[in-house]
Each structure stands twice: as C-alpha cells, then as structure tokens.
Design goal:
- There is one protein chain.
- By secondary structure, the chain is of the alpha/beta class.
- It has a single domain, classed as Class I glutamine amidotransferase (GATase) domain (Rossmann fold, 3-Layer(aba) Sandwich).
- The chain is about 25% helix and about 30% strand.
- It has a seven-stranded mixed β-sheet with strand order 2-1-3-4-12-11-10.
- Strand 11 and strand 12 form a beta hairpin.
- It is globular, with a radius of gyration of 15 Å.
- The protein starts with 5 loop residues before the first strand and ends with a helix.
- The protein binds glutamine.
- The site of glutamine has 11 residues, from helix 5.
- The site of glutamine (GLN) has 11 residues, from helix 5.
C-alpha cells in the first residue's frame, strides 16, 4: 500500500468522532463509513462505542450488515470498542429481543455486565502486548467477555479475572474506550494490523 492506510470508522451512531481524531493523530487517513461503497474503500474499520442494539438496527436498515459480515470474513482488520466489541461477538448475552451481531470474534459478550451500581468506572489494566506501562481504561455501561472460545485470545482482565479485551486474527475488541483517554496504543496496534494486511 502506498501512503497512509485508509481507515474507516463506522459512523451510524456512537462516538465515531473521537476514534477519527485518534486515528488521524496517528497519521492514518480516517474517514466515516455509513454506506457499503464507503466500506469498500477502506483498509481497516473501527466500530465505536455507543449502543449496540441501535447500531445493529441501523446497520441492517442501511444495508451495511451483510457487507460488514463479508468484510470481516474476508480478513478486514476491525477494532471494536464497547458497543463495537458487542457487534463483533459471535454470541451476545442480555441483548434486546432480536438483537444480532456481525460476529467474527469467537466469544460470548454480556451487555451492561457491571450492573447499575457500577455503570461507569476507570481502572488501570496490564496489557502485555502493549508494553509495560498499564493502560488507563474507562468503562461506560460496558460489556464483559463472558467466555473466550478456542479461536480467540484474551488480552486483558480486570482485577476479578473477567476478560475485557480480546484478539482473534485481524479482529480486536475492548470493553472500554481508549479513544476518550488519550491512550493511543490500541489504535496503533490496530493500525499495525491494517498496514500488515494491506501490504
Ligand atoms: N451498553 C452499550 C451497549 O449495549 C455499550 C455502551 C458503550 O458502548 N459505552 O451497546
């Protein structure tokens, strides 16, 4: 690939602007994706945080769900945060009636898993693939990865051992939101995959 990778951010709903800003700060050519023609142009995709049940409905309404599934199956690097992780999970627990995901990650993800007492919280996580400095993670009505299938790998756990970041081939998912804390290592890790995949 010549020049910067062209990276899309699914912009149906949620905090896509924050992801675009982080990706541009890292030198990527980041663009919003709302239509299949836009998806076809990108070398990688971020699915932002927001509300997965709404994102699911909008992606089906706008004819993006099947192209997204095809792109994931075809090896497109995709990074999902929070609602984006739910969209990438093969199995959703506590979804709304009829809620579907795109799938790709061999995991079961439970929505809103930290309970109403602990809607939002921040903590530092050790994430060995990103180096020695802990990642400051913000969780907002966050899902957890309740089970990790044989094809996926856990990248991070909270103190009680629950999994909050996973990877499988070109797919990455985090329960938390690096895009709002100034943390750029997950996006850099993702861009490395995008560059490797587009070579
Ligand atoms: N609770 C939301 C959902 O189910 C996710 C929240 C978020 O993305 N911050 O999609």
């Amino acid at each position: 690939m010549a020049g910067n990778p062209q990276v899309g951010v699914l912009a149906l709903q949620g905090d896509f602007r924050e992801h675009i800003a982080v990706l541009r700060g890292l030198g990527a050519d980041a663009v919003p994706v709302r239509r299949p023609e836009e998806l076809a142009q990108v070398d990688g995709l971020v699915i932002p945080g927001g509300e997965s049940s709404v994102m699911d409905k909008l992606s089906r309404t706008f004819g993006l769900a099947q192209p997204l599934k095809d792109a994931i199956a075809g090896g497109l690097p995709v990074y999902g945060t929070c609602a984006g992780l739910i969209m990438l999970a093969d199995r959703i627990l506590d979804g709304i009636a009829g809620q579907q995901s795109l799938g790709g990650l061999d995991v079961a993800v439970r929505r809103n898993a930290f309970g109403s007492q602990l809607d939002s919280f921040e903590t530092d996580l050790d994430i060995p693939v990103l180096g020695d400095v802990p990642v400051h993670a913000v969780f907002i009505r966050a899902p957890i990865v309740e089970s990790v299938g044989a094809n996926a790998t856990a990248l991070a756990t909270v103190a009680d051992g629950r999994v909050v970041a996973v990877e499988q081939g070109n797919l990455i998912g985090t329960s938390f939101h690096p895009e709002i804390t100034g943390e750029t290592r997950f996006h850099q890790y993702f861009l490395d995959k995008v560059r490797a995949a587009s070579r």
